[in-house]
Amino acid sequence: VMDPATHVIFDLDGLLLNTEELYSQGTNNVISKYGKNYSWKVKETVMGKGPMEVAKIMCDTYQLPLTPEDYRSEVKAQYSLILPGAKLMPGAFELVKHLKNFNIPIAIATSSTQQEYDYKIHNHKDFIALFDLVLLGPSDPEVKRNKPFPDIFSVCACRFPEKPIPEKCLVFEDSPNGVEAALAAGMRVVMVPDPRTTLNIDKATLVIKSLSDFKPENFGLPPYPL
């Protein structure tokens, strides 16, 4: 058993919601018009980064005849249609509800824009209401740098009324950039990666296949009731 965690911070995309596959679909719909195909190798490096940064990387990597701004408006049109169909990932509701039942402070820290966040939580407002706070990196003035920098998690910890030290915070992430950001913030991180992921798996505190596999007592959190 590790030193007990007192506060838990969750990434959103691909971790609590199945939105990473929806983002891939939207991205492919745009770049396929230019004869390109979105590869996992590229996807793995951009997951968790800020929207404009991703747009620049996509335009460069795939040599698209678009400015990053044009690319953003094309994918945004796709996302508005696709993201409202987001579904909860296996075990997400059970874990979050369990922590809430035991009054463990919980937060979401996401690189999502406000507009995309609103689309994807459209059918999950009761679930989102369980969280003590939600931090959206792109629109938060205190978050100066995107993942893999630690800013989003460091700022999030400071927003809890108790202002826990990083060592007491446990982060859940699916992306390699997110894992790096959590570790850079001095926090422990449970990685629930897409099965295709190869980057940073060896760096995470713990790697599990699904949130359903998480045993809270291993981090000094209350165990699930029998």
From TrEMBL:
SUPFAM superfamilies: HAD-like (SSF56784). One of its GO terms (molecular function) is pseudouridine 5'-phosphatase activity. InterPro entries: HAD-like_sf, HAD-SF_hydro_IA, HAD_2, HAD_sf, PGP-like_dom2. It catalyses: psi-UMP + H2O = pseudouridine + phosphate. This is pseudouridine 5'-phosphatase. Its EC number is 3.1.3.96. Keywords: Hydrolase, Magnesium, Metal-binding. PANTHER family: 2-DEOXYGLUCOSE-6-PHOSPHATE PHOSPHATASE 2, PSEUDOURIDINE-5'-PHOSPHATASE. Belongs to the HAD-like hydrolase superfamily. CbbY/CbbZ/Gph/YieH family. Its cofactor is Mg(2+). Pfam families: HAD_2 (PF13419).
